[in-house]
Amino acid sequence: GEIAILGGVGEQNEKLWSFTKKASHIQLDRFISEETLYVDVPCLSAQLDDSVLNIVKDHIFKHGTVASRPPVQIEELIEKPGGIIVRWCKVDDDFTAQDYRLQFRKCTSNHFEDVYVGSETEFIVLHIDPNVDYQFRVCARGDGRQEWSPWSVPQTGHSTLVPHEWTAGFEGYSLSSRRNIALRNDAESSGVLYSSAPTYFCGQTLTFRVETVGQPDRRDSIGVCAEKQNGYDSLQRDQAVCISTNGAVFVNGKEMTNQLPAVTSGSTVTFDIEAVTLGTTTNNNEGGNFKLRVTISSNNREVVFDWLLDQSCGSLYFGCSFFYPGWKVLVF
């Protein structure tokens, strides 16, 4: 083809005809088809003369080892609002991993960037734009070694879920550029900072991570509610469930007997909510006709209870309130 292109005008037709004639006789099934996915071809093999093979092996073993595939691979990608949970696993039982290294990039980018290095086999990658493809790859470092293993075959994932965002412009709080981090910065104002929309749906996990702490107050609250209600200075009210920074749990404004550990810097508080029943409850004294089962977890402890609402809610708002500055909360 190159010769045909470089040939003169008079010779070009003849050379192209000769080239296409040869191409038509090539056995295309000897090559990997273009439709084959990269993940389905972890390695390529070649048949070499024994003398050549020995020379190549000697050179390779002077610098390292030969493996048929990388020792770790991406196992699962789970979408989250504004994030993706990446899970990976070892596929080489003889490989003892000391650390793992996870990288990601937008599919439109040529550059991978480190997002996690450590001993865990799961990590949530945040700041993910919805409906945008991202590639992930992972490698490992053997026990007592400095060099990293080959990268796993890149896996592509995306999130269709709308990111959780705090309401912008609320007095007393400043937000990050993505509006998923709220900082309490003014002790003069009060009130509940709500989400910009009811973006929490039953069956999902809602996570709050406390980045920094301020002076605690018993009226502080982090939780979810059926609707925004202005005029309250806390989520410790009807049609809401929350945890205070001292660990107290409130359901429709009433404090539960069970209590979680106090919230500290780095604490993660999660809410898992599932619909239990629809229709009128048998106990009228409890009020409400729509029941949700709520699990609140914090610092390796959890409480589980039924939350009764006046009416069915397809989605819920989340919110927080702090009475002293310094509290910073990330939601995802």
From TrEMBL:
<comment type="function">
    <text>May play a role in the negative regulation of cell cycle progression.</text>
</comment>
<dbReference type="InterPro" id="IPR013783">
    <property type="entry name" value="Ig-like_fold"/>
</dbReference>
<dbReference type="GO" id="GO:0005737">
    <property type="term" value="C:cytoplasm"/>
</dbReference>
<protein>
    <recommendedName>
        <fullName>Cytokine receptor-like factor 3</fullName>
    </recommendedName>
</protein>
<dbReference type="InterPro" id="IPR036116">
    <property type="entry name" value="FN3_sf"/>
</dbReference>
<comment type="similarity">
    <text>Belongs to the cytokine receptor-like factor 3 family.</text>
</comment>
<dbReference type="InterPro" id="IPR003961">
    <property type="entry name" value="FN3_dom"/>
</dbReference>
<keyword id="KW-0963">Cytoplasm</keyword>
<keyword id="KW-0175">Coiled coil</keyword>
<feature type="domain" description="Fibronectin type-III">
    <location>
        <begin position="70"/>
        <end position="163"/>
    </location>
</feature>
